[in-house]
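Holo model, nicotinamide-adenine-dinucleotide. Inputs:
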Amino acid sequence: MKTLNAAIIGCGAIHTCHVEALRQTPGVALRAVVDVDKDKGLALSAGYGCHFYQDYREMLCDVAIDAVHICTPHYLHKPMILAALAAGKQVFCEKPVAMNMAEVTEIREAEIQASGQLGVCYQNRLNPTSLALRQLLEENTIGRVLSINAFLTWSRTEPYYAHSAWRGHYATEGGSLLINQAIHTLDLMQWLGGGVTRLKAVVDCARLADTIETEDTAMATLDFSGGARGLFFASNNHTQDAPLQLDIHGENGELQLRNNTLWHVDDGKRVEIASDEAPYGHSKRYWGNGHINAIRQFYDAVRSDSHSGVTGLNDAAKSLHLVEAIYRSSQLRQWVTLPE
Ligand SMILES: NC(=O)c1ccc[n+]([C@@H]2O[C@H](COP(=O)([O-])OP(=O)(O)OC[C@H]3O[C@@H](n4cnc5c(N)ncnc54)[C@H](O)[C@@H]3O)[C@@H](O)[C@H]2O)c1
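Output:
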C-alpha cells in the first residue's frame, strides 16, 4: 500500500485531533505542518518529526504531499480549498466548509475541475449514538417522526475569543455560535430529519455583546421535509459544555440523547441503545469522538477513488444553508423557506 503523505494547515486547538487521527490511520504519514506562527510551527514540526512551512502555498508545491487538512480560521477555508484543489491535492477541511453559500458555489465550480476530492469534518455523524439514531430511524423503529428537538448549551467566554482574534467577527468567523459550535447540531438535525423546508428563528448576542459582534444565542422553529416539526435552541452562555440533548418523538415512541447515551423510550420503558465511548486524550468531550473515524473514512475514499462515507461539499453545505436561513429569518422576523 502506497503511503499517502498529509499536511495540516493551521496548528491551533483542533489540529491535535488530526495529528492523532493520522497516527491511527494505516498507510498515512504526517509530512508537514503549516502555520503563520513560525515559532509554534517549528516547535510542533520538531515534535512530530515533519517539515514546517510558514506559507501554505509553498507547501502546496511539495509534490510528495497527497492530502491537505485545513484547520484554519473560517475565512481562510475557501481560498485554501481552491488553492489545494488547483494543486491537485486531496482536501479534508474542518467545518464549516466556507463562510456562506456564495463561497460554496465557488468551491463547487473548482471541485468539478479538480482531480482530488473534498471531504468536510462532521465527525459527530460518526458517534455511535448518531449512527444508531440514523439506523433506528431508517428501520422505522418509532414510526412516523413527529418532532426533532435539540438543546445545546456550551460555554464560550471572553478568554476563548481573546485567544484567537479571528473569532467573534463576521469577516473572519462568519458568525459564532451558529457557524462554529451549533453547526454540528444543525447538521445532525437535518441529517436525521431528512432536510428542512422552512424555519423561523431568533438570533441574539446576550452576555457577550461587549466581546463579540456575532451571536451567542439562537433559537429556531423548523419544518422537516418528511412532515416533522423541529425545535432548536443553542447558547454559548452556559457555565459548562453540556452534552447535546436531542429528542426525536415518533408515533410509536421516542429516542432521547442524554449525557452522550441514546435511549429508546416506549410505553414508559427506557432502554439504553448506544453510548459514545470516552474520546481519546486529544479531543475535548464536547467535540465528540469521531475525528479518527472521519479521517480514516476520508483516506479509504481517496484510496478507492470513491466518496463513500465522506461528508462531501453538498452534504456539508446543508447545515451552512440552515445557518444562513436562521440569520435571515431573525433579521426579517419571518419564516424563511429553504430549497428542496
Ligand atoms: N470539528 C470540530 O469539532 C471542531 C472543533 C474545534 C474547531 N474546529 C474548526 O477548526 C478550525 C480551526 O479552529 P481552531 O479552534 O483550531 O482555531 P485556532 O485559532 O485555535 O487555530 C487556528 C490556527 O491557524 C493558524 N493560521 C491562521 N492563519 C493561517 C494561515 N494563513 N496559514 C496557516 N496557518 C494559519 C493560526 O496561527 C492558528 O494556529 C475552524 O474551522 C473551527 O471551526 C472544529
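The CA atoms of residues 279 and 289 lie 5 Å apart. The mean pLDDT is 95.
Archived with the compound record.
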